[in-house]
Design brief:
This protein has 21 helices and five strands. With about 525 residues, the chain is mostly helical. α3 packs antiparallel against α7. β1 and β2 form a beta hairpin. The strands form two sheets. Strands 3-5-4 form a three-stranded mixed β-sheet, covered by helices on one side. It has a two-stranded antiparallel sheet with strand order 1-2.
Length: about 525
């Protein structure tokens, strides 16, 4: 039976270089203790920032200094945990880092109410008299925009302290999804028994053998079905947390609160759902084509990912993917690709799937660290596209952090996907130019079609689901497993039902989507 390699068997060059943040866990512990002892330095400044522009500057600089150190602690611990979510040592370190983050936020919670207590003319005077405060002008402008939603210093302290409890649903789901939930064994195309994982599921659901993809679909979703009530309770708790913070900050809804963070009107969200909904007939047209080309009497949910053209069965090693992506991104310039290749050499990327490793892929890091990418590379074209996608995020982060001060050393989530989808588009263009092979070209175009379906229609369906469950909860209705599954079934009927049999097991798919714990995120 095929099983995953242990992490200890993976060559170092294919693991990320977390030692570039802290050379050892002991160094992390020393930094943790030092930062913990420094929190009173910020607390001692409470009630003083109104004294002068210099006093305000001192408070803001102290806050930034502590938070930058805190981010390093949190990134290191959380990514160590993601290497093996069953490792209790790193579970504890990540939990302690989150606790310290909450404590720091609680100590710093006096800052915004005290600034907003200043008359605007006095704040303008401070900036005029203290040139170094000019750096914070945009932050202060954004803060003023939130004036009606910042509470008193006492209430802000309570809200910050509640943050650890608010992280509970996401933490619980992560442990269920990555550490505790074991998927069954299925048979691959050759009839060999294979351990199903979150990573290789994407391979089997695209199998040209219909029985293999059906077995993978049923095995995965049946496993989540057994946890339906637990995960429903976890997701409902996440929604209640969102509503709590929105209510305490005087927003009309949890969606409004989430979008206000980036100054985005709810009409943007509504327009996306409406526009995509009006164009579902185009999706059905594509699904009808898919059914005809696959020569199926009925198109099922497990038939949505198999290529509709003859597969080239091209094995793409990580080394090949790395070189191909670098060449594909050449239009972005020598400086860009030079830094990209340095990233490979400096071990930005944790490449292969191993037991207990967090599923999926992401780009991470903090201001003052190198970028980091978590992959679960599977040796195929899809994995190569994932590499290109995450490199878009990491390069975006690299340039932002290297050319902006700490205060603006991040980018909003609303623009984050621009860099990643650009990279995917450049990779598609490059691959099409490099081959005249008809089968290969059709396979690349098929990938692009599927990426469009998944990015636009599937993510919008997720966004509509999020809106529905938050709206129900805001009306006081319970989010039970049955309620969530019923809503999810109806949405699948809306989006896919015109040409697809909406299999009953798809009703539980909501239970395996981690994005629902980053509320109102996927629409972006």
């Amino acid at each position: 039976m095929q099983t995953l390699k242990k992490r200890s068997d993976i060559p170092t060059e294919y693991t990320w270089n977390l030692e570039s943040i802290f050379s050892s866990d002991e160094d992390w512990e020393r930094a943790f203790q030092t930062l913990q002892q420094r929190l009173p330095e910020l607390d001692a400044l409470k009630g003083r920032l109104a004294q002068s522009g210099q006093a305000l500057l001192t408070v803001l600089r102290k806050r930034d200094e502590l938070y930058q150190q805190l981010e390093h602690l949190y990134v290191y611990a959380s990514m160590r945990k993601d290497e093996d979510t069953t490792n209790s040592k790193y579970q504890a370190m990540a939990d302690r880092a989150m606790q310290l983050y909450i404590r720091t936020s609680t100590v710093a919670s006096f800052i915004e109410p005290e600034i907003l207590a200043l008359p605007q003319d006095k704040l303008d005077q401070f900036i005029q008299e203290t040139p170094d405060l000019t750096l914070y002008s945009q932050q202060l402008h954004d803060l003023n925009r939130k004036r009606g939603h910042i509470r008193s210093a006492e209430i802000e302290a309570v809200l910050a302290a509640a943050g650890e409890m608010a992280e509970g649903p996401s933490s619980i789901f992560t442990m269920i999804d990555n550490a505790d939930l074991k998927l069954p064994v299925i048979k691959n195309e050759a009839g060999e028994e294979v351990e199903l994982t979150q990573g290789n599921y994407l391979i089997f659901i695209r199998s040209t053998n219909r029985q293999v993809r059906k077995d993978a679909f049923e095995a995965l979703h049946s496993t989540f079905l057994k946890q339906r009530n637990t995960i429903a309770s976890t997701l409902a708790s996440q929604v209640k947390s969102d509503i709590f913070y929105a209510t305490q900050r005087n927003y009309g809804s949890s969606r409004e609160a989430a979008l206000a963070r980036y100054n985005i009107p709810v009409s943007v969200y509504d327009n996306l759902i409406t526009t995509v909904g009006e164009n579902i007939p185009l999706l059905n047209r594509y699904l009808k084509l898919r059914k005809r080309i696959l020569q199926l009497d009925e198109l099922h949910m497990y038939d949505l990912y198999v290529p509709i053209v003859e597969e080239t069965h091209e094995e793409v090693s990580y080394q090949q993917a790395r070189d191909t992506v670098a060449e594909a991104l050449a239009p972005l310039g020598e400086n860009y690709t030079s830094i990209l290749r340095q990233g490979f050499a400096k071990r930005w990327i944790d490449v292969y799937e191993t037991p207990g490793k967090r599923g999926g892929a992401y780009s991470g890091g903090a201001y003052g660290t190198q970028p980091f990418i978590l992959l679960n590379y599977q040796g195929n074209r899809d994995s190569m596209y994932t590499l290109a996608h995450e490199l878009g995020h990491s390069m975006h982060s690299y340039f932002t952090r290297n050319y902006q001060p700490y205060q603006y050393g991040d980018y909003t989530i609303f623009v984050a996907e621009v860099a990643s989808t650009l990279n995917e588009g450049l990779l598609t263009e490059y691959l099409l130019k490099k081959t005249d092979d008809r089968a290969a070209r059709l396979a690349i175009l098929n990938h692009s079609l599927e990426d469009f379906r998944g990015t636009l229609f599937r993510q919008t369906m997720f966004a509509e689901f999020e809106l529905q469950i938050h709206s129900l909860a805001e009306k006081g209705e319970a989010l039970t497993a049955d309620t969530l599954s019923h809503l999810y079934h109806d949405l699948n009927e809306k989006y896919y039902g015109g040409e697809t049999v909406v299999d009953e097991l798809i009703n539980i798919e909501w239970a395996r989507i981690p994005h629902f714990y980053s509320s109102f995120y996927v629409y972006q």
